[in-house]
Amino acid sequence: MVDSNGVNSECCHGPGYATPLDAMKNGKREKLLYTVTVQPNLNEPHGDYLSTVDVDPDSPTFCQIIHRTFTNRLGNELHHSGWNTCSSCYHTEETNTDLVPKRDKLILPALNSDFIYVLDVATDPRKPEIVKTIDGSVLKSHNVTAPHTAHCLANGNIMISTMGDTEGNAKGDFVLFDANFNCLGTWIKGESKPYCGYDFWYQPYFDVMVSSEWGAPKKFKRGWSDDDLTDLTQYGCRINFFKWSTQTLYQTIDLGMEGVTPLEIRFTHNPKRAEGFVGCALNANVYYFKKKSNSDEFDCRKVIDVPSKLVQAGNGRPREMGGLISDILLSLDDRFLYINLWRHGDLRQYDITDPENPKLTGQVFLGGSLCNDLTDVKVVEDLELKERPNPCYIKGRRLEGGPQMMQLSLDGKRLYVSSSLYSPWDKMFYPKMVEKGGHICLIDVDIVNGGMKLNENFLVDFGKEPYGATLPHEMRYPGGDCTSDIWLAD
What is the pLDDT along the chain (490 residues), one digit of tens a residue? Predict the structure, then answer.
């Protein structure tokens, strides 16, 4: 039996792999890529959708979108997704298979409408179907809005982080649903709550969960401008630690200006390592956190600092341009950390064998705001590069935008990269990407020596979609992936 949070690992059977290394060694190669796709035309009635992309190199439809599951609703802004079941409940042959939970539902929360869509991905994995729609009023009835990250729990429940209250003010919390997607209320107990919310990850072996902060929904939904730099009070700068068993906030670490907008947060995949990383968007820093010995509290320190560049656009005055780290990812063996720099345009791989001293082992440029063919941009000062990067072309198509969401194959050899961050921000920073459509590209990874190389034969183009150019964001595989599965310790 397990308690309400799945702390007791007696429940050790499910659809995934026994350990992260088991998944890396024995996991099947991905053949489908479920991609959250946003419709930037807010008047297009089909709205946002889930794209099913064929990534099987032996398939006649390789690199093509083979199905679209439309929400048929305006104003959603689908963003992240999650599974109803993951490797926190691992299946063995000794188990009564009738009782084994199945990873057959993909959950799609909508940032702007507060709706949640539940998709059946098992009946026909190539053609997912919406089987339940949870109205935005359900979240509002609990005074939470802007749902973001969804994780399954070992007891069969699903937990989704939220970022605001019903008025769009900053409010960090989590909302629970049972296996049939009935709302059970909010998760946090007690009066202490984070200033705001975003991502989260749990490690029950250490009785801990960690969450990050983006900002007040009514602020970030307006988009971003340089004027926001003069007032960052509506954006987060903290990471928050909770007692998993009591569902209470017990430690908050303020990262200050260097850590404004900490977004994606990851514990290491090994469930017996109480350590992890968080990427802070605005100033392009990565912080490493680790549990103190003989204490439940964590230490935290900056381990990657990507310098801002002094950039002049048109006839304006030079301004600092941060890299904007909006996604980070760990390989299943916890050897490599990947970060994106959406504004600067590059993707980086770090060896984190020594996690307090990451070593840069790979770098690929995939567009960005600094390419040398942008005639209205002048780089006044760059502490890293002697020359501006070339624009990136794949199959004759110039990549607009920068590297955004990432998903790594289980074996660590293939890194898929999409281009859209959040459509109001896309429209401000990369209007050409919005006009021409986003893309997914593929990076081949050297898992022995480290290093990355652009695969010039792979491109998924969202520029010629049935109802106009669209914007691809987060990606997942039917069999689980490197950013959704959380393992329980034996």
Answer: 233 443 333 333 446 788 999 999 999 999 999 999 999 999 999 999 999 999 999 999 999 999 999 999 999 999 999 999 877 665 455 555 556 678 899 999 999 999 999 999 999 999 999 999 999 999 999 999 999 999 998 888 999 999 999 999 999 999 999 999 999 999 999 999 999 999 999 999 999 999 999 999 988 887 766 666 556 678 899 999 999 999 999 999 999 999 999 999 999 999 999 999 999 999 999 999 999 999 999 999 999 999 999 999 999 999 999 999 999 999 999 999 999 999 999 999 999 999 999 999 999 999 999 999 999 999 999 999 999 999 999 999 999 999 999 999 999 999 999 999 999 999 999 999 999 999 999 999 999 999 999 999 999 999 999 999 999 999 999 877 899 889 888 7
Query: Is 12 inside a domain boundary?
Result: no
Cα–Cα distance for residue pair 249/357, rounded to 1 Å: 29
Nearest Cα to 411, choosing from 445, 384, 388, 375?
A: 445
CA–CA distance, 69 with 25 (Å, rounded to integer) = 32
How many folded domains does the chain comprise?
Answer: 1
Nearest C-alpha neighbor of 309 from the set 402, 403, 379: 379
Encoding tokens for residue 197?
Answer: 């919310």
Please, how many CA atoms are within 13 Å of residue 179, restricted to the half-sphere of its CB? 12
DSSP letters for 353-365: SSTTS-EEEEEEE
Rounded distance between C-alpha atoms, residue 266 and residue 190, angstroms: 25
Dihedral Cα 17, 64, 83, 206, nearest 10 deg: 60
At 29 the three-state DSSP class reads coil
**Domain of residue 354, CATH code:** 2.130.10.10
* 357/364 Cα distance (integer angstroms): 21
Is 453 domain-assigned?
A: yes
**Cα-based distances in Å from 490 to 73, 243, 271:** 44, 20, 9
CB atoms within 10 A of CB 323: 27
Q: What ranges in 173-301 are assigned the alpha helix state H?
A: 217-220
Contact call for residues 415 and 407 (beta carbons, < 8 A): yes
CA distance 104 to 62: 23
Per the structure, the complete domain to which residue 194 belongs is given by 20-476
Instruction: Tell me whether residue 360 is in a domain.
Output: yes
Q: Find out whether 355 and 285 touch, Cβ atoms under 8 Å.
A: no
Q: Is residue 490 part of a domain?
A: no
